[in-house]
Amino acid sequence: MQTEYVFDRDFTVGDVNDKVWSSFTEHLGRSIYGGIYDPGKPFSDEHGFRNDVKSVVKGLDLGVVRYPGGNFVSNYNWKDAIGPKQGRRKTMEFAWSSIETNQFGIDDFCQWAQEVGVEPMIAVNLGTGSIRDAAELVEYCNHDSGTYWSDLRIKNGHREPYNVKYWCLGNEMEGSWQAGHLSAEDYAKKAREAAKLMKWVDTDIKLVVCGSSYEMLDAYLEWDRIVLRECLPYIDYVSTHYYTMNHGQGDLEFLSSWRELDRHIGNTRDAIAFTNDKMRGKKDLKICLDEWNVWNFQDIKLDNMEQLAGLTTFELTSAGKWEQHPPILQEKYSLLDALTVGGMGITLLDNVDSVEIACLAQLINVIAPITTDEDGNVLKQTIYYPFEALTQYARGTVLRSSVHGDDLETTMGRVPVIHAAAVHNRDAREIRIFALNSDLRNPAEFSPVFRGFGSPRLVRHLTLSGEDLQARNTFDKPDSVVMRSMAPADGATVELPAASWNVLIYSE
Ligand code: AHR
Q: Is-contact 100 27, C-beta < 8 A?
């Protein structure tokens, strides 16, 4: 099977914003406790931050890390988790029916973010929280001194403000599973007022409003129309989430989830365009895809996402009720999952003109590329590898492409055998191509044609592939699924292994 992609130096989609390669960590299971934070352990530093996790996260070179939720944030009182640790109260956490010890809070997160070199992106509670709590959190984090909350931060040992720039106005507020869930009209007003107050405290911040995420809900997109109309003058980004699940639809169909993601992003983009036209506005709102991943619900007793509608709680995991940091949602990812994540990463590149922030959800232990055990070991799951390759190489300007080639029949219609995108990195004088071969049985021939570049030469070929699509990495066998180097092809055509995700680096 043969596919030709034509890339032209002068026809570009846009630059890859550094925040397209971002992630997310929530007070959920062992994401924070036992993931980022494990005090008193030989493998943790004096603040209780795990050194092994810090060094893997640093290697990813992430843009922002979103915190503290997720569903968690909708009943979170950030004031419970500041100040001396022994005085902090334990609270009932409604999103995951757990006990929250509040031993890790906003100061700890901002300090951790500084250490690993990422920008914090903080979500405020617009479920059970007030707009005043939201503004006070901005004051606590960003105001220099001389007010109650800024002085309290200083008293708590943090002289310098954190200057957190990116703030989410709640999380998935369209879902009835959210504590304090609101109708679109009520959320729109609350988000607008929170936005005003937060920007009054700090005019430099950027705000992400909740767009809708769940296509099975009646509110999907109707929500965006109402919320955007009300909030347009005050916001900078619209959030949407996208998770795909392997629910037996067929391997090829699952692998082609990138097509659904592409459509999903397009829907949010259209909602923004609709609002702009309707309000005769010209606001260049960007999309913040602040949660995306494969999530196979290995630890959730639901058969499919549709059943989520109407649920008010996530009492659906393997945890007993009100456990402290239970090991929930610890998905074990396969090679097929990793290829699917890689395919969706290529789709993010195709959409960099509208997606400026995208957070792989999540970062550690919970539906995550990184897993820790209790003895100080860290494991890179299969999905870590395409994500790492994207964070490392997909920097620069995405080139538009035209494709001529074979496609494959699926129950969702035909999909191209090869899904690819190219990034031109001017500094390195390289064109970096990311290519998924969806033919599960046969290699595919890939022929890139470069216009305006002279004759670029393939200098590196990395591939993620293997015979067993269900192969996983484990603490005993951590390297079953990793990116491997292939000898770069000499000619104009490159053979991509069956069922593979590839990085091809061409020198200009
Ligand atoms: O990432 C897990 C959960 O998925 C988040 O808490 C929520 O925002 C989404 O439903």
A: yes
